[in-house]
Amino acid sequence: MEDKVLSLKNLTMSYSGKNVLNGINLDVYRGQIIGYIGPNGAGKSTTLKIMLGLIDNYEGTVEILGKDISKSGYTYKERIGYVPENAEIYDNLTAAEYLTFIGELYGLDREVARKKALHLLIEFDMEHVFHSRISSFSKGMRQKVLIVSSLLHNPDVIFLDEPLSGLDANSVMIIKDMLEALANKGKTIFYSSHIMDVVEKISNRIVLLVDGEIKADGSFEELKAESQKGSLESIFNQLTGFDEHKETAEHIVSIVTEDTYD
Ligand SMILES: Nc1ncnc2c1ncn2[C@@H]1O[C@H](COP(=O)(O)OP(=O)(O)OP(=O)(O)O)[C@@H](O)[C@H]1O
After folding, report:
1. What value does the mean pLDDT of the chain take?
2. Coiled-coil region(s) at which residues (predicted)?
3. Ligand 1 binding pocket includes 192 (Cβ within 6 Å)
4. Ligand 1 neighbour 100 (Cβ under 6 A)
5. Complex ipTM, two decimals?
């Protein structure tokens, strides 16, 4: 199909003999916002890193924008943007220097990259620090720089791994609306996060990964109808078989407050 943007076929990955992804099959179409969720260690970041070409010793097939990424070389990366969970960022550069550099790496003209970066940072109320070193930025300010850096080249597919980390409530609203507007323009968004109420609101399709396997795949309404639970958080708890949060919390508190540890 022409509008198929991503296609994973029997994607399998193991580290030191331990299977992390167990045969993932997933087709993603233009304009979809995929909420990619799952417990810690389920394999979400591993899937993202494979699609981004950062891990290559996987089995199965990964097609992005109609091409098998193991054969097509790196040019597909010109059309994708990535906000990593833990980013290496060149702290000693100013926001202007860093973003202009990233823009140039993506093939933009230096002046175009600089202007576009400035205009985007203005929208995030950060014009006053355009010429400040990133090392002086707060966590949320660094996150905004990362988000801007992933969008400078107007990518068709955007991968975001916990992108709202450190952002204040106003900025979260901007990012949510921005992702929706980008999807309406035909961009495809692959959004991995643990913040269930945001995933519930922005995704038009939710994919739940558990132990390297897709355990649920559908719109929030579909998942809700299947599980008869109210929120995505409770659907997540049910589908991952977890109902012991109260007991676990109490055990933690009893260990913390136990005075026989010496
Ligand atoms: N470089 C590595 N070497 C060995 N094992 C790894 C490596 N990277 C990831 N793993 C293992 O693969 C599994 C999946 O990790 P991954 O980071 O993909 O999970 P995740 O779903 O993104 O988790 P989280 O929600 O905690 O970010 C985990 O068991 C992890 O320990």
Report:
1. 92
2. none
3. no
4. no
5. 0.96
